[in-house]
Amino acid sequence: MTAPEVRKTHAEPLFRIARRNAVSVKTKIVTRAAAILLALVIDAFFIVLVTKLNPFAVYARIFAASFSAPMLFMQLLRDLTSLLCIGVALAPAFRMRFWNIGAEGQVLMGGFATAMCMIFLGDRIPTSALFLVMIVTSILAGAVWGFIPAFFKANWNTNETLFTLMMNYVAIQIVAYAVNIMRGERASVGSINKAGWFPNIFGYNFTLNIFIVAALTVAMYIYLKYTKHGYEIAVVGESERTAKYAGINVKKVTIRTMLISGALCGLCGLILVAGDKHTIATNTAGGNGFTAIIVAWLAKFNTIYMTLISFLLVFLEKGAREIASTYGLNEYIAGIISGIILFFILGSEFFLQYRLIFRHRAEHAEKGGADK
Hints:
This protein has helices spanning 25-51, 55-67, 70-95, 103-121, 127-156, 160-181, 207-226, 228-238, 240-245, 250-277, 288-298, 303-326, 331-353, 359-371; strands at residues 15-19, 354-358.
């Protein structure tokens, strides 16, 4: 005698979420393009309802903010390179699942070291020697700022998120203290002389920044994808137990990776001070240390994709400022317009990683399997 069939007493959910196994490049492109298109439609309704403006005219101004003149496009590249450089620096740490939230401070310390070299050595040593000293000191300053939290994490398993975040405030206070001491003619590097400034190429001092960051982007892509160190970083990020079983020294990889991440942030500080700002202040990094977290995460730590994400974020930021100025809009309204686009792009990543299985489809699939 068979036991009676047990009926389900609980209600099935309307849908459930399941992880996708693999997504084709075509699907990724179509999904992201659809997200941007939908965001533009929502933005158009928002613009008409709130500002009473023609959405097509607003979109045209956003585009014109970066492409209506060669100088504006070069400024776009300038801002892109500073954001992308930090994103590239964060890539190895994030790939290792070491959440380095301290890029802002690491960049600031690299820029601070560069500024001190320019102030105190600018008129005392040859330019070639000055550049060499600036490079070494900026890299060392950033590397030290990355090494400290990595050392504590590797040896005592401290929380790297809080540790690196707190290091930002320490860096800010150091720079603020130094600038206050030197307040006056030395508070600005450019007020003394131009020793240590990057050379003018194609009419801009920051042109060299673009070449440097482009080279770093490609080099980091190769480092993470094709080298033994990149493999070790990926294994440690997936599972420390697996890494230890495979004979990988987790402590060594953790410290080495953060030294690289901090050093590249320090180098970003160098290009900001020597190739762009020509001064040092507590806001030299401009918040890019935090924005770059979005860049690294959206690009899945692929530095080539980071270029596209950085371009989009900088393009939207410049466009928001342009329409706020042109149409006299509140800066928050302009921010909402660009924020909606970013929100939809972030949302599209969910659908690339997961799929929704609705109740009726699941039941249909089960019946089909039972009939067979």
